[in-house]
Design a protein that fits this description.
The chain is of the alpha/beta class. It contains 14 helices and eleven strands. It has two domains: about 70 residues, 2-Layer Sandwich (Alpha-Beta Plaits); about 290 residues, P-loop containing nucleotide triphosphate hydrolases (Rossmann fold, 3-Layer(aba) Sandwich), CATH 3.40.50.300. The chain is about 40% helix and about 15% strand. The strands form three sheets. The chain has a five-stranded parallel β-sheet with strand order 6-9-5-10-11, with helices on both faces. A four-stranded antiparallel β-sheet has the order 2-3-1-4, sandwiched between helices.
């Protein structure tokens, strides 16, 4: 298998070229990443289809750079205890990701991994996914991680993973590539995919970032409303879906946004609780968003100790000040901001009481469970 890395010049029509290549069937997967005004993309391709794919890229805009790399013999061994941040959308996962990505030995793909994981799991037709199993939503379990899917996911991460300075792993000379790296991964829908990820990365470590449901769901409502304002009303009614797809998501279409946001919060946290309770205690850690923002330095140092991420002068100096806003911030944070949706939240909160109670149990288990044991 080969990795083809394509770097389009600024403002070039990269997506259109990638779509033509993808539609041709020459590539196994295409992982596009927007880097400012520039499009980068990595493509996985079988050796026998290499020439066909390169021919398809000949229509790329002038100034496009195409590089070919061999897939390492054992790519899965390169990822040493990958770190996966879990949390409901709008729970602060981007803030935590952007902070930990400043660690000296952190490697990321520069964004969220929709192109890496979801390329093999679903296809898209317009706005809404085509072929999605409605009963499952974004859920993937261990049975979905067959050898072919594992190869694509591992190869996909390897093709775009980069160090703190943004230097791609595959672009380093083979002799100068580290033997193993610490991958830091964040995508909220991973909250529904813990068994899938564990099958592919058995030694991975999970960070569960939990935010108070009123604040979290209030922020989800803000995000839904913001995204609906970006399109015309007819488009919004016919197809826009924001954030993760909980099981049975089609049954939520047309319901009040607060109900949809509550269902998304419920699904994310319910699956996290269920799946982490079946994992040895030493493989996960719990952190509250409210502590992250009010006691940032202590919490980040605690997480770095758990994950073996290295703090050098870059992150150390950053931790002397309040954490900057994440790139996904819609309006400046405030602990009482959720009150603008207080009436809607009062209606949905009773349905979440069982989960919030289990969260409290998890907080106790985190400190009381001996290492190597799972919850009873």
């Amino acid at each position: 298998m080969k990795i083809i890395h394509v770097r389009f010049p600024p403002d070039a029509a990269g997506p259109q070229v990638l779509k033509r290549v993808y539609d041709s069937g020459a590539s196994i997967s295409i992982i596009p990443l927007r880097q400012g005004r520039r499009w980068d993309a990595s493509l996985l391709v079988k050796d026998e289809l290499l020439q066909s794919l390169l021919n398809g890229l000949r229509s790329s805009p002038p100034g496009t750079r195409v590089s070919v790399f061999d897939m390492p013999a054992a790519p899965d061994r390169i990822f040493d205890r990958p770190i996966i941040i879990l949390g409901c959308p709008r729970s602060g996962t981007t803030l935590l990701f952007e902070t930990l990505a400043k660690c000296a030995n952190a490697w990321t793909i520069g964004g969220e991994s929709y192109g890496v994981i979801d390329r093999h799991a679903r296809q898209f037709d317009g706005v809404l996914p085509r072929g999605k199993v409605e009963a499952r939503g974004d859920r993937l379990d261990a049975s979905d991680a067959d050898p072919d899917a594992a190869k694509r996911v591992i190869g996909g991460f390897l093709s775009v993973v980069r160090d703190r300075e943004g230097r791609l792993y595959i672009e380093r000379e083979p002799a100068k590539r580290p033997g193993c790296i610490r991958l830091l991964e964040k995508m909220p829908i991973n909250s529904l995919r813990i068994p899938f990820l564990r099958r592919i990365f058995p030694d991975c470590r999970f960070i569960f970032l939990y935010r108070d449901p009123r604040a979290n769901i209030g922020s989800l409502i803000d995000g839904w409303q913001y995204n609906e304002r970006q399109v015309d009303s007819q488009h919004a009614r016919d197809g826009i879906w924001t954030y993760l797809y909980p099981p049975g998501w089609r049954g939520l279409i047309g319901k009040p946004i607060a109900d949809i946001a509550a269902a998304q919060w419920r699904a994310a946290n319910q699956f996290i609780l269920r799946d982490l309770m079946n994992i040895p205690r030493e493989h996960w850690i719990f952190i509250k968003y409210e502590r992250l923002v009010t006691n940032s330095e202590n919490q980040i140092r605690r997480l770095c100790e758990f994950t073996s991420l290295e703090i050098d002068d870059v992150l150390d100096s950053m931790l002397k000040h309040p954490l900057p806003f994440s790139r996904n911030t819609l309006t400046p944070p405030h602990p009482e901001k959720w009150r603008r949706h207080e009436k809607e939240l009062d209606l949905v909160m009773p349905s979440l009481e069982a989960i919030t109670a289990k969260i409290e149990t998890m907080k106790q288990l985190e400190t009381s469970l001996p290492r190597g044991q799972v919850a009873p």
